[in-house]
């Protein structure tokens, strides 16, 4: 079986679904945000503030380049911006089978209403920010994906089943 790579907008469930998939497939879950936070020694928000988004994106690409070398199986949960540049999208496809966990902007807003950990959504008018990012990103997520999984209204069980069926 190839590695499973999860992509999608902030709050779409990459980490929580990733954790369940890792159990099913008995392999580690690697969460790129978590690895980067450990390496930075600070939160992603702090890193954005100190070094800026561009530097963060460079570090994301460098991390993917390292994962190409990895031999052991894994489920990879990526940060929401990871597949947006063509270079990263190509690296992700090399790493494994890429699943886009699709949610609506409405569901995203409901989930992230009180969130303070996403620097790109901080400040005024979260709804406007979410809708703008959705419009910009949707074609890129679709292009980066091997499979698109509609997650709204589905149970974890159903989503995991869809992934299992696709990789079998
Ligand atoms: C980002 C998503 C975040 C994190 C950073 C940037 C994005 O990850 O990598 O705040 O550009 O969508 P999650 O998708 O896990 O929230």
Short key terms for the protein model shown above:
binds shikimate-3-phosphate; Rossmann fold; alpha/beta; 8 helices
As for the number of domains, it is 1
Enumerate the spans where pLDDT stays under 50 for 5 or more consecutive residues: none
Q: Let me know the average pLDDT.
A: 96
Question: What's the CATH architecture?
Answer: 3-Layer(aba) Sandwich
Strand content: 5-15%
Structural class: alpha/beta
CATH homologous superfamily placement:
P-loop containing nucleotide triphosphate hydrolases
Largest sheet: 5 strands, parallel
Give the end-to-end Cα distance, rounded to a whole number of Å. 8 Å
Gyration radius from CA atoms, angstroms: 15 Å
| Element string (H = helix, E = strand) | EHEHHHEHEHHEH
Task: Identify every distinct bound molecule in the structure, by name, code or SMILES.
Answer: shikimate-3-phosphate
How many helices in DSSP terms? 8
Q: In which range does the helix fraction lie?
A: 55-70%
Number of strands: 5
CATH class wording: Alpha Beta
Q: Give me the side-by-side strand order of the main sheet.
A: 2-3-1-4-5
Large-scale geometry:
globular
CATH topology: Rossmann fold
Descriptive notes:
- The chain is of the alpha/beta class and about 170 residues long.
- The protein has one domain: P-loop containing nucleotide triphosphate hydrolases (Rossmann fold, 3-Layer(aba) Sandwich).
- The protein is about 55% helix and about 15% strand.
- It has eight helices and five strands; from the N terminus they run βαβαααβαβααβα.
- It has a five-stranded parallel β-sheet, sandwiched between helices.
- The protein binds shikimate-3-phosphate (S3P).
- Shikimate-3-phosphate (S3P) binds near residues 118, 119 and 120.
- The site of shikimate-3-phosphate has 10 residues, from loops.
């Amino acid at each position: 079986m190839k590695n499973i790579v999860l992509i999608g907008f902030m709050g779409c469930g990459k980490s929580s679904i990733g954790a369940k998939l890792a159990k099913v497939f008995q392999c580690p879950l690697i969460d790129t945000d978590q690895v980067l936070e450990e390496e930075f020694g600070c939160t992603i928000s702090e890193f954005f503030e100190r070094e800026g988004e561009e530097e963060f994106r460079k570090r994301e690409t460098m991390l993917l380049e390292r994962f190409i070398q990895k031999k052991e199986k894994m489920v990879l949960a990526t940060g929401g911006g990871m597949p947006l540049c063509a270079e990263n999208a190509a690296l992700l496809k090399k790493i494994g089978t890429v699943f886009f966990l699709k949610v609506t902007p409405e569901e995203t807003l409901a989930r992230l209403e009180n969130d303070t950990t996403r620097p790109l959504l901080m400040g005024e008018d979260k709804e406007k920010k979410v809708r703008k990012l959705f419009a910009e990103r949707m074609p890129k997520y679709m292009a980066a994906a091997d499979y698109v999984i509609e997650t709204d209204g589905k149970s974890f069980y159903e989503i995991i089943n869809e992934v299992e069926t696709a990789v079998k």
